[in-house]
Design goal:
alpha+beta; 14 helices; three-stranded antiparallel sheet; 569 residues; 48% helix; globular; disordered C terminus; eleven-stranded mixed sheet; 16 strands
């Protein structure tokens, strides 16, 4: 019987080896198929994601069901396809978009260091588009209703934001939406006989302004990057002084203006993206009555700068770190302003639009009773970007705390012309638009965290808060000192030096002429001494300002290293 047991054990061992070899071969085949399909990476995690998607696919809903009523705030999420760069890094797809839900599958290892599992984080938004959706789809459910409202002639201020991690497709999405807006806007204005109260080319002019906010400065992208200033008139309206507005008569002229502005926008290479947008680009489309000049409607298309965490800026120089801190500060202010739109219905009228220049310029879009806002959050699908994706979705989730499915709070009556725009588009045989990927989302997060982990995270957040607040104050002071230094150098030092040089030239001519007396030489020497004293004083003042600026710059660098990881809002 012992021999039989040994033979049985040997047979079972052979069966296990054979099964293990078959699993190994099957794994290698699946790995090769995934790589050929453009989804490389850890095949075990890929299988877990595929298994999850197969069991939840029926949860996806139709976007038509979510587009029946207009809302004052609409949050959408767009997932782009996996890129060649991510394929080279053997990144796998870790984001699932099942409208209206977005799921992030974070790859984890258990405490044994071998067993693999997924940590699922879910969010629910107004719209969620996967990588197979097109820019037309995103535009139809996020921006097209705003075109109807803006052209209604009731003074609606509509704003569309594109937000997300650098390299997630914000600029690609916004440029596609700009092209679609140009087609529908001019199509809607070209034949409005049946809408007596709406805007048309007979009674309305369309002007375009395109500028960026970079490093605290406003630069006109359509006027050779001319620097503008923010002023407030006696009525409390925000005016961008020096900003040029250009009238557009058709779609072709409109797109030509936007193309010119997009080419001059500020971009720099970062660790995450070779052509990262380092500025907030704002395109304002303004409709005014021809007779009275009264504002009939305004649409602002805002392509926000790419967000980055402090961990991704360790090798950046001081300028890149300062840019990142300024971007994060303005994004925090933007979130609070958008949330204030919903709070207005509960009696809270305060909107913190003065917290940044971005929100100050868009003041009327936040304070007007007819303001409507759409945010398109773009996410990267790669597993290495899972933390960035979670930050982006949490930011969008916090903007609109109202649950999806609640009765929407519309800030004014809808123009009710979406169907008319659809009919006009179908009747005008437009050229087929290029397709592109998109996704919208908004909702609640379900993350299983232990009480101890939450306590540790809260402690870490408390420790970092003081340094982060101090860093933001230092960055703001740095911008102010930089502007003061430049203004002093230009207006005081250079200008006054030029005047002193002119006076010195006249003094030399006076003493070098024929018949110059000793008194002329004495007066020359006395005046030259005063001029040299003044120059010395100007140099000393410039050196003091330069020393103060350098000290602030050094303080910013030390705080950046100490913080290490700026909180992402």
């Amino acid at each position: 019987s012992t021999r039989l047991r040994i033979e049985k054990m040997e047979a079972e061992r052979q069966d296990r080896r054979r099964a293990a070899q078959e699993r190994k071969q099957s794994r290698a085949q699946d790995q090769q198929r995934s790589k050929e399909a453009g989804d490389p990476g850890d095949i075990d995690f890929i299988r877990l994601v595929q298994k999850w998607r197969a069991s939840h696919q029926e949860q996806a809903q139709s976007h038509e069901d979510s587009a029946q009523e207009q809302q004052r705030i609409c949050i959408c999420v767009r997932k782009r396809p996996i890129s060649d760069k991510e394929i080279q890094k053997n990144d796998h797809d870790s984001v699932s978009c099942l409208h209206p839900n977005v799921w992030v599958h974070s790859a984890k290892l258990r405490v044994d260091g071998i067993s693999k599992y997924l940590d699922h984080n879910s969010f629910r938004f107004d719209h969620a588009f996967d990588e197979h959706a097109t820019t037309d789809d995103v535009y139809r459910f996020s921006t097209m209703p705003l075109i109807d409202d803006v052209c209604s002639g009731t003074g609606v201020r509509a704003t569309v934001f594109a937000y997300g991690q650098t390299g997630s497709g914000k600029t690609f999405t916004m440029e596609g939406i700009q092209a679609l807006v140009s087609e529908d806007l001019f199509l809607l204005l070209s034949g409005q006989d049946e809408f007596a109260s709406g805007c048309s080319f007979d009674n309305t002019t369309v002007t375009v302004a395109y500028f960026e906010i970079y490093g605290g400065y406003i630069q006109d992208l359509l006027n050779d990057r001319h620097r503008c200033k923010i002023l407030e008139d006696g009525k409390g309206e925000i005016v961008v002084s020096g900003l040029q507005e250009y009238e557009a008569h058709d779609s072709k002229q409109f797109l030509s203006l936007l193309s010119s502005g997009n080419q001059t926008r500020t971009t720099h290479a970062t660790e995450a993206n070779d052509t990262s947008s380092r500025s907030h680009a704002i395109c304002q489309i303004i409709l005014r009555d021809k007779a009275s000049g009264k504002l009939c409607g305004k649409l602002s298309l805002v392509d926000l700068a790419g967000s980055e965490r402090g961990n991704d800026t360790k090798s950046h120089n001081s300028q890149r770190r300062t840019e990142s801190a300024e971007i994060n500060t303005s994004l925090l202010a933007l979130k609070e302003c958008i949330r204030a739109l919903e709070d207005n219905k509960m009696g809270n009228k305060h909107v913190p639009y003065r917290a940044s220049k971005l929100t100050l310029i868009l003041k009327d879009c936040f304070t007007s009773a007819l303001a409507k806002t759409t945010m398109i959050a773009t996410v990267s699908p790669g597993a290495s970007s899972a933390d960035h994706t979670l930050n982006t979705l949490r930011y969008a989730d916090r903007i609109k705390e109202q649950k999806v499915g609640d009765k929407p709070n519309s800030g004014g009556k809808s123009s009710g012309r979406s169907k008319n725009l659809e009919r006009a588009k179908s009747a005008s045989a437009l050229v087929e638009r290029p397709r592109a990927h998109s996704l919208p989302a908004q909702s609640h997060t379900h993350v299983d965290k232990s009480t101890e982990q939450k306590r540790v995270e809260q402690k870490q957040k408390t420790v970092a808060d003081d340094d982060e607040a101090e860093l933001r104050r230092v960055v703001q002071s740095l911008f102010e000192q930089e502007e003061n230094l430049l203004n002093f150098h230009m207006s005081t030092k250079i200008q006054e030096n030029a005047e002193l040089l002119t006076e010195e030239g006249k003094m030399l001519q006076n003493v070098q002429r024929e018949g110059a007396t000793q008194d002329d030489y004495d007066e020359y020497a006395a005046r030259l001494g005063c001029i040299l004293e003044r120059k010395t004083m100007l140099i000393a003042m410039l050196e003091d300002r330069m020393a103060s600026f350098r000290a602030q710059l050094k303080k910013e660098e030390e705080l950046s290293k100490r913080v290490g990881n700026l909180s992402q809002y």
